[in-house]
UniProtKB/TrEMBL annotation, chain A:
GO molecular function: transmembrane transporter activity
Gene Ontology cellular-component annotations: plasma membrane
InterPro entries membership: ABC_transp_permease, ABC_UrtB_bac, ARM-like, ARM-type_fold, BCAA_transport_permease
Subcellular location field: Cell membrane
Keywords, alphabetical: Amino-acid transport, Cell membrane, Membrane, Signal, Transmembrane, Transmembrane helix, Transport
UniProt lineage: Bacteria, Pseudomonadati, Pseudomonadota, Betaproteobacteria, Candidatus Accumulibacter
Record-annotated membrane-spanning stretches: 245-266, 273-292, 298-318, 330-348, 379-399, 466-490, 496-515
NCBIfam families, per database record: urea_trans_UrtB
Similarity comment: family membership: Belongs to the binding-protein-dependent transport system permease family. LivHM subfamily.
Identification of the protein by name: Urea ABC transporter, permease protein UrtB
Protein origin, superkingdom: Bacteria
Keyword Cell membrane part of the UniProt annotation: yes
TrEMBL record, chain B:
A single MF term (Gene Ontology): branched-chain amino acid transmembrane transporter activity
Protein name: Urea ABC transporter, permease protein UrtC
InterPro entries in UniProt: ABC_transp_permease (IPR001851), ABC_transptr_urea_perm_UrtC (IPR017778), LivM-like (IPR043428)
Transmembrane segments: 23-44, 50-69, 76-98, 138-161, 168-186, 216-237, 263-284, 304-328, 340-365
Pfam families per record: BPD_transp_2 (PF02653)
Keywords: Cell membrane, Membrane, Transmembrane, Transmembrane helix
Amino acid sequence: MGKSRFLLCGWLLSVSLAQAAIDPALLKPLASEDSDTKIAAITALAQAAPAEALPVLKALADDSLAVAGERVVIVAGERVLDAANNTEISPAPAAREVIGINNRVRRELSAALAALRLFSTERAVRWQAAQEVTLSADAKMLPLLDRALAAEKDPEIRTRLQLAHAQASLGSTDAEVRLAAVKTLGESSDPKVRQLLLPLNEKRGDSWVEPDSAVRAAAGTSLRSIEQRLAWADSLGRAFTGLSLGSILLLAALGLAITYGVMGVINMAHGELLMVGAYSAWAMQSVFRAYLPGALDWYLLAAIPVGFLAAALVGVLMERLIIRHLYGRPLETLLATWGISLFLMQVARTVFGAQNVEVANPAWMAGGIELLPNLMLPWNRIIIVAFSIAVLVAMWAILNLSRLGMFVRAVTQNRPMAGCVGVPTGRIDTLAFGLGAGIAGLGGVALSQIANVGPDMGQGYIVDSFMVVVLGGVGQLAGAVWAALGLGVFTKFLEGWTGAVVAKIVVLVFIIIFIQKRPQGLFALKGRFVES
Amino acid sequence: MNPSPVPVPFIVRLGRSFDARTWQIVGLFAAFALVAVPVMHLALPPDHPLHLSTWFITLVGKILCYAIVAVAMDLIWGYGGILSLGHGLFFALGGYAFGMYLMRQIGRDGSYQSDLPDFMVFLDWKELPWFWAGSDSFLWVALLVLVVPAVIAFVFGYFAFRSRIKGVYFSIITQALTYAAMLLFFRNETGFGGNNGFTDFKRILGYSITAPETRVVLFALSALALIGTLLLARYLVTSKFGRVLTAIRDAESRVMFIGYNPLWYKLFVWTLSAMLCAFAGALYVPQVGIINPSEMSVANSIEIAIWVAVGGRGTLIGPVIGAFIVNLAKSWFTVSFPEYWLFFLGTLFIVATLYLPQGVVGLWFKLRGRFRNDDAGAVAGDAKGVRA
């Protein structure tokens, strides 16, 4: 596909430009058998006539440049064009031989092509070309880059080009040029530039790679400033991924903060409620795909209420049928809900299959914001952070502002008294459990966007969720929030040194030790009482 | 009640832990495991109707080990009121320690013909890590099997019980503990064989591990270990120690107000329970021929609790029955109806907690109309044994 488009593009370009001719003497060496001669010819051609050389070099890259007698021609399907002036030759010469190129020539050729595209009239093409050139700039390209810089108006592309220019100048024989280049490079915050500067301060055998001591010193300074910026961006990025992990932990644990934290029900099937939410997202995606393909990108919005309701329904059924008979017997509740979790897992496996299902990110969640060259904040993470804040606020509002929330608090604080003043405690239990389950469903919808959706997905979150609630302090929403964010950021910074699994182990051990020191969690309810 | 202040010799006291009828049952069981099984497996030809297959020996031997774990779990849960979701860790630790001995017994017969176990050669290790030093000695490994889990349980339990962590909190942090250990053991660089764990054993104490005779001996050892565990547990729960432990389960604060420190009681039974588990793990590994980190998974540890719950908490025969019921059902389901096994297990959890608070043993007594809510429990239903 790319090939034909290039051809077409090249042809259009050649038509739009004045039919300025290329000196056939410049073209002739392209057909040489010797690679060095070919490369020299490519460079010479690119520098002599950048605009006219483009179609010729493209044809060479596409294996459609041929020699016909004395002339170099471009074969474009049925037609044959004279490479020198881009006019059709008719009748097409029958005897022609395609010019072959080896990998070495191809490398040089693509660099030259990228350089030539710097003169394109389209900004996007130039931007792309500038990025490509930065990777492969060398001293031979300097004149070209000079000309491109002179012509370029766009500030972003100019910065790129200046970098490429500096990079190309590093190969210069003039120490002054190299010094200026090293200084320019110091302004970059691209990890690749760091790689470029590193060898300058190394010794190869007895001699320095860079002979001039002033350049070496400048390279050192530039390196330090680049590394500083890189480290800064690195910590920023880590803080963000930590925040993002924290928000995921929070979403996974918020439902549990109600069912366990507020109601005191040990729900080991919490992970499976997350799974119900995630499968709802998948189901809505399938429904939209089948009936509303035009609005497929918005299935996620529909999945939010569906996920909430589906999980809440499962939660209400669980509470009505099983959990309510076990109030006051936490260890039995733990085992019974574990049984429910096994049951739900097998239901998911039977209904949806044992394999993970594929839930696609909507288009509006793709991509991200590039804050710095090595720091990209993906949209899906940003949206999940925002979503967890929204869920948190909604939950806080329900518990603290609504009548249901008031009843829930009343029942958990003093059940007999609440019953005496007319609160239907049984129904409140069911509703509160349904609310917690529904919030777990919302967490599941969010998780479907970043994690695998399958029958076993819930098992992976159960330990983490309990850790968040226990660490935060049972009965404390604020505790759960701080615990989730703290754990997220702590884990991500640890991962930087130790790797993911060891970080996870360290965090678990840390929590175990922490709980020993402070069994009531980060935020404890104040008061004096004898347990049991 | 025995009002006599005359101290009873330990061995007599131990013997009196079971009443006469129970001793008869134990004797029958021992005769079956030590005489009948070897004869039926080794002496009878394979086509004889009474011949016991290798499959049977392995399965029942495995379940006997599980039954030891279940009794250990019952000591801490049924009598101590502490639900541990981390017993899989101790079981696996015992298994790993003994597994390493079996790995060393392979000698140079592994696929790489090296003195090091195959997985270490594969990871390009040049020598054994320090903690496996001496693992070619049976005695040292036998010590490791018991001491390592005991030390871990003691340290963990000391801090947990000192902070008065109990109930669900304790369950959750034991779950975190075994989960963390599982992640650690899954790593290749920690020296525990990663995903695959230890397997491909060839010899034990120089004897071929797949030989029918070895299997029969391991089976008999498991049966003896189970009898020993039951006797020890029975001795404990009928002693003064057991009475205090049960009192702590029922009303910890009151026991403290009377002047007992629950810490040492809980810590002792917790550490003992961990050691029994580890011992069972060490017996289990040579019989099934593999130990890997999935033994430490949270699900496995919770399954132990369901054996006890199904059989009947607070009785000693209950966990044994529960371990047999659940594991026989498991081996039947996973062969015949693999897709229904989790449905069955899930339902079992729910039914056992909702309708069978005392397990099948409790149900049995209820049906016989003579169920008594006797906390000390009894192996054969009658608590006629000596009470201090």
